[in-house]
Design goal:
alpha/beta, Rossmann fold, 7-stranded parallel sheet, two-stranded parallel ribbon, 9 helices, binds nicotinamide-adenine-dinucleotide
Length: 318
């Protein structure tokens, strides 16, 4: 089904976490459509560098604020609110557990309240982590998941599951126009080299001819999505009237070992592969069932792993 663009020229959009990796690309795409964008960030995992190119853009405002304290005063009305703020990498789960819980609870509620006040469309950036270590493969949105509710990853998984529950409660109770996107592993320029996720770690190791540290046997799989594909999916969902949750990602499923070997080849590196201890509750398999995204949004990923990884390698090489 074709989705008609709903947000563009003259619309005002609030993006939480706007100086982060995925959110900053989303900000770029919204500005390119003619929207005015206000981004809120406390820079806990994001960076001003990610939006430095927008310094002279009059339709862009960056506000430093911590959503754990609720929303700062933001004059004017927003047409849509995208809640994308949250530390999101596995190393953050151990280092920033309380911050993750707060942004996914206090932050989510504050933004939902603001969406009600403004009668804005509210889009929640949820995650494939909502499926935990899935027992169903690939994962359709109807699958409720297999989540350890108090393990090391639970702060993230449960904060996103809480955010989904809160979003649906506001939709049902307040009639709020809402959407939930379940994002699968996404990569691309502006990731932090040291954020603990496999792709930036492997690329930076390969560029230095250091051993690529693969967790466990490396047989665990992920479906990797280039950021441009994800952002296109997010904006399709925003424009639609769908509530979701809707998966967004690609079906390019690679084992971590295959991914490491591919990165060594693409970087022409001398690196070897080193097996290291696997973190607890690390999911065995990940692949989205994209039936809903295709049917409801006409979404189709376009960028293959080689093309996307080459662009990402180019970014890190600089
Ligand atoms: P990121 O860390 O680069 O971006 C998150 C941004 O939120 C950062 O700029 C950070 O400083 C900001 N932030 C965090 N807590 C905040 C707070 N309390 N107040 C204000 N700002 C705060 O991460 P990302 O990978 O770009 O992820 C963006 C969103 O997409 C997150 O919500 C994440 O859970 C979701 N997501 C990402 C992926 C992925 O593969 N990248 C997968 C699933 C879901």
């Amino acid at each position: 089904m074709a989705v008609t663009q709903r947000y563009g020229d003259g619309h005002r959009i609030l993006v939480s976490g706007g100086a982060g990796f995925v959110p900053s690309h989303t900000v770029d795409a919204l500005l390119a459509r003619g929207c005015e964008v206000v981004a809120i960030d406390n820079f806990i995992t994001g960076s001003r560098d990610n939006v430095a190119h927008l310094a002279d853009e009059p339709r862009f405002t960056l506000i430093e604020a911590d959503l754990a304290d609720g929303l700062p005063p933001l004059p004017g009305r927003f047409d849509a609110i995208l809640h994308m703020a949250s530390p999101a990498s596995p190393t953050d789960f151990a280092k920033l557990p309380l911050e993750i819980l707060k942004v996914g609870s206090i932050g989510t509620m504050a933004l939902l309240d603001r969406a009600v006040d403004d009668a804005a469309r509210f889009l929640m950036a949820s995650t494939s982590e909502a499926y935990g270590d899935p027992l169903v493969h690939p994962q359709p949105e109807s699958y409720w998941g297999n989540v350890n509710p108090n393990g090391i990853r639970s702060v993230y998984d449960e904060s996103k599951r809480f955010s989904e529950a809160a979003t649906m409660a506001y939709h049902r109770f307040h009639g709020l126009d809402t959407a939930i996107v379940r994002i699968f592993n996404t990569y691309g320029p502006r990731m932090r080299p040291d954020d603990g996720r496999a792709i930036p770690a492997f690329i930076n190791q390969a560029l230095r001819d250091l051993p690529l540290t693969v967790h466990g046997s490396g047989a665990q799989t992920r479906s990797i999505t280039y950021v441009d594909d994800l952002v296109r999916g997010i904006l399709l969902l925003l424009d639609s009237t769908e509530t979701g949750p809707i998966n967004c990602g690609t079906e390019h499923e690679l084992s971590m070992l295959e991914l490491a070997e591919l990165i060594i080849r693409l970087t022409d590196s001398e690196s070897k592969i080193e097996m290291v201890e696997r973190p607890s509750d690390d999911p065995e398999k990940r692949r989205p069932d994209l039936t809903l995204a295709r049917e409801k949004l006409g979404y189709e990923p376009r960028v293959g792993p080689e093309e996307g990884l080459r662009k990402t390698i180019e970014f890190f090489a600089k």
